[in-house]
From TrEMBL:
GO cellular component, one term: plasma membrane
UniProt membrane topology term: Multi-pass membrane protein
Full protein name: Cyclic beta-1,2-glucan modification transmembrane protein
Pfam families named among the record's database cross-references: Sulfatase (PF00884)
Swiss-Prot/TrEMBL keywords: Cell membrane, Membrane, Transmembrane, Transmembrane helix
Sulfatase N-terminal domain span: 296-589
Length: 669
């Protein structure tokens, strides 16, 4: 007698009636949320249907088929994430924007990271979810950085997380449409992973699979970081965007070039030749010191201070800086070209105080975090050697950009931060320029009469973001003409600049009544990241597509040098921030180091140099040094040698007496 056994085959996919209600609720909530964000109705319906259709389903495959689905999900995850990250990186069609080599090099990093996660987690589905979440999180962060700073994330940013945390609460993190879509795609992918069968325990790959893959990864890393493969492939780091590279590839390329190599022909003999040439030029020109020198020398690096109306020909209801534009008596005014845009203020501080340039340092690095050492020559120690009390003032937190340690290494007598400011008034959560200057004046009034005072003051009022509530700020200046009503962030910024101009007028009028000779220099650290599409419009295209001269318009910041006594007046001076301190000392009639004399001579050949390009004596801009004349290239090579000697060479090989005044080396003036 045969016994019949009925075997019921489970369908590969079955409906779950118990999940229909929550699925419908989720779909409705999702649809409502999407509509609130302003997505088109058709897109909202598609997303809602995708979630609603997937929720009631359950895959009932096991064994080999189940493992196959898990492997497929693990393989497809990095591909999906590459697309999502590039969409958030403003590369909406990576298959068009990148070559096959660039796509492949990006994917290698995605798969290596996903493989490392799998080795730790031991489960394919779990690893696919963790790595996907990690990649999308990085993409979200990068889009915020581009929105707030106008540039992509660099390896050096990992050293500045504390600084970023200081100002994190002053930005609007409401996700835009692209971020929302990518988050929904990630949620859909994770929901799909949740439906897949999961292994009961931790399963590691077999050694015969791991060892060859590990060897291949080791070879790839060696070729990538230790050979000239990138140069051969024509892949270079991008400073502002990642078009042509992709996010992970650009990040790794910047990491590859984050070390600084010796300049070509670098030697002690070459350095001594530069020193001898500089000293010979100085003797031929005669003494540079003369005239009246200030008892009080005040330098103000004004946060995000720039003249957008003049730089881009904007129409506004009124002039945002009438006092500065009208200031002419005993004044030197002009334009400085910064190496940074939208942020990384510390690099402007570094260039001004040391005379060094970011042009010779890896893209995305921050010297304050990486290269400053105790006793490094700078304007502060130089002023201290000349008998000035040296004070650094910054009306914000002390943890930003490693400033406490840096200014201690720079030898400043006093270092003042927000906690040291009294009777502070705030605007958009930052201490105002007016309140900042009131504290500066109080500092001056407390010193002994006739005591030389040097102050380096980095303001905070105009810091981004510019889409936050106008707390303590009146709307006084706004765009008119074709741009009226289009860029509200620009309007907030222009109103801030109007407040800065008024505060500077208050400072100048106060010291115009002071008997002690006083000189004040104010300059901007960089232009503001008000809106990416604003700059695309006024510049005529995306930054990385612009010619060298047009690109430099985004690097322009004004400077004004005023004294309450007679000094030669000048207008229209153009230079870069690394030259500005030499110009200050020359105008103030104070002794300059050999390095500063070299920079003054170099400025005749290369009037401006920054992290974006070079300007020759004829006024033409170039993005690459190789495009300059032979004389300009030779002078820049000498500059690079001197900077390398100062920052990276062993101490016993350093031309110490070239970077400092004679009295700082135990000699006489």
């Amino acid at each position: 007698m045969r016994t019949q056994v009925n075997i019921k085959k489970r369908p590969p996919v079955e409906l779950r009636p118990d999940l229909l209600l929550p699925a419908a609720a989720l779909a409705i909530a999702l649809l409502a949320g999407l509509l609130l964000y302003g997505l088109p109705l058709g897109q909202a319906l598609c997303w809602a249907l995708a979630f609603g259709a997937l929720l009631p389903l359950r895959f009932s495959v096991n064994g080999r088929a189940g493992r196959g689905l898990s492997r497929l999900a693990f393989v497809l995850g990095p591909l999906l994430c590459f697309f999502l990250v590039e969409c958030m990186n403003y590369n909406y069609a990576p298959w068009k924007d990148f070559s096959l080599l660039q796509i492949g090099l990006n994917l290698v990093w995605y798969y290596m990271i996903a493989g490392a996660v799998y080795l730790l987690a031991g489960r394919l589905v779990l690893s696919a979810g963790i790595s996907a979440g990690l990649f999308v999180l990085i993409g979200l962060m990068n889009r915020y950085v581009i929105r707030f700073r106008g540039r992509t994330i660099f390896p050096g940013d990992l050293l500045t997380l504390r600084t970023a945390a200081n100002v994190a609460g002053n930005y609007d993190y409401w996700p835009d449409e692209v971020q929302l879509r990518c988050l929904l795609a990630l949620a859909l992918f994770c929901l799909l992973l949740w439906k897949l069968p999961r292994n009961p325990g931790r399963r590691l790959p077999r050694l015969q699979v791991v060892l060859p893959l590990a060897a291949a990864c080791a070879v790839y890393l060696c070729v990538f970081f230790r050979t000239g493969f990138l140069s051969w492939a024509g892949i270079e780091p991008s400073l502002w965007t990642t078009r042509g590279n992709g996010f992970l590839l650009n990040f790794s390329v910047c990491l590859r070039y984050s070390t600084v190599a010796e300049p070509e022909g670098y030697s002690q003999e070459a350095l001594e030749a530069v020193r001898a040439e500089t000293e010979g030029d100085a003797e031929a020109m005669g003494p540079a010191v003369g005239g009246q020198s200030p008892v009080n020398l005040i330098v103000i690096m004004n946060e995000s201070f720039s003249d957008l109306t003049e730089t881009f020909g904007l129409e506004t209801n009124e002039d945002p800086m009438p006092f500065l534009h009208g200031l002419t008596e005993n004044t030197v005014k002009g334009t400085a070209y910064s190496s940074v845009f939208g942020g990384t203020t510390a690099n402007s501080e570094f260039e001004f105080l040391t005379g060094n340039t970011m042009a010779f340092l890896p893209d995305g690095t921050v010297p304050f975090q990486m290269y400053v050492t105790p006793g490094m020559p700078n304007l502060g120690t130089q002023m201290k050697a000349l008998g000035y009390e040296t004070v650094f003032m910054h009306p914000y937190l002390s943890s930003g950009w490693n400033r406490t340690a840096v200014y201690r290494d720079f030898g400043f007598d006093r270092i003042l931060f927000q906690r040291d400011f009294t009777d502070a008034a705030f605007m958009r959560n930052y201490i105002t320029d007016r309140s900042n200057y009131e504290n500066l004046i109080r500092l001056y009034e407390e010193k002994e009469a006739g005591e030389p005072l040097f102050v380096f003051n980095v303001t905070m009022q105009n810091h981004s973001a510019y889409n936050v509530p106008w707390k303590g700020l009146d709307k006084t200046v706004w765009l008119t003409g074709a741009m009226e009503g289009r860029f509200h962030t620009v309007n907030q910024y222009l109103s801030l600049i109007r407040e800065s101009d008024s505060a500077f007028q208050y400072l100048v009028e106060y010291f115009s009544q002071v008997e002690e000779p006083t000189m004040i220099l104010m300059f901007g650290d960089h232009q503001p990241q008000v809106a990416t599409n604003f700059y695309t419009e006024v510049l005529g295209g995306a930054f990385d597509t612009l010619d060298a001269g047009t690109a430099q318009r985004r690097q322009k910041v004004p400077f004004v040098l005023w004294a309450n006594y007679d000094i030669p007046e000048e207008r229209g001076t153009e230079l870069s921030l690394n030259y500005l301190s030499s110009l200050l000392l020359e105008t103030a009639g104070l002794p300059r180091t050999g390095y500063q004399q070299f920079l003054s001579a170099l400025r005749e050949t290369v009037p401006a140099v920054n992290g974006v390009g070079y300007r020759d004596a004829d006024g033409a801009w170039y993005k690459r040094r190789s495009e300059l004349s032979e004389a300009a290239r030779a002078s820049l090579l000498q500059y690079e040698m001197l900077q390398y000697n100062l920052l990276f060479d062993d101490e016993e090989n350093r031309l110490a007496d070239f970077f400092t005044l004679p009295e700082q080396n135990g000699g006489s003036t």
